[in-house]
Amino acid sequence: MKKTLYSLMLSEDVMREIDALAHQMGTNRSNLVNMILAERVEMRTPEQQINDIFSEIERLLATSRELVPLFAPNAQRVAVRSSLEYKYRPTLRYEVELASGFVPGEPIGTLSASFRTQSQGLLELLGRFFRCLARIEGRLLPLDVTYSLDGGRFTRSLSYPVKRGGAGQGYTVEASEISRAITDYVSLVDRMLKACVGGADAETLTDMYAADLDKRSVLI
User: Fold this and answer.
1) In a designed cystine with 69, which of 58, 146, 152, 212 is the match (CB 3.0 to 4.6 A)?
2) How many CB atoms are closer than 10 A to CB 182?
């Protein structure tokens, strides 16, 4: 959603209360005023849509024993923490960041995975896994996504959601569908990564990905 600078004459008392409320909500004055006006005219802002998506991801992961969501309201990113069955149980952190406004045909955001470990052997193993994941998706995923691997951080673009088995480019995706697609994908990557750490080879990982892909209704 395009934003334009406007000048408004407002009461100092009103702005004082707006600033206090914005601080409580973890947002800024402009965003809060935009949200209030959007609610008045029965619109949902991109920021509210992102908040809906992340709130639903948090709900979907509430019962997970493997993934712990770290959600802050009114933020454009959500983190999910996991741990590996490896020496000292190193922590793995997934982070989803979404764009302010989704445009059909363009990425809606990124998924990154970062790992805190001093083990060079583990870093090399994780690097091999994410390069393997990129090759698997290059063969099986009917979407164009980009990847980068820099030190201890892997990043993948999140494609504009595509409905399988019918709806095409004009399909309007619901926030709940995006939440489910992101949650399922992060869960898949986490399962595959843990299988890799446990000794699974590329063929096994490919089979895991293909089996999961067959069950997905929305691709990102």
Assistant:
1) 58
2) 27
pTM strictly above 0.85: no
Q: Which pLDDT score is estimated for 67? A: 96
Read off the tokens for 62. Answer: 């509430």
Interatomic CA distance for residues 117 and 98, integer angstroms = 27
User: What is the full DSSP assignment across 49-111?
Assistant: HHHHHHHHHHHHTTT-SS-EEE--TT-SEEEEEEE-SSTT--EEEEEEEE-SS--TTS--EEE
What's the pLDDT tens digit per position in 55-65? 999 999 999 99
Report CA 203 to chain centroid distance, whole Å: 27
Q: Which residues pair with 69 in a beta bridge?
A: 80
User: Which pair of structure tokens corresponds to residue 117?
Assistant: 């470990």
Alpha-carbon span 77 to 194, nearest angstrom: 24
**Average pLDDT over the chain, rounded to an integer:** 87
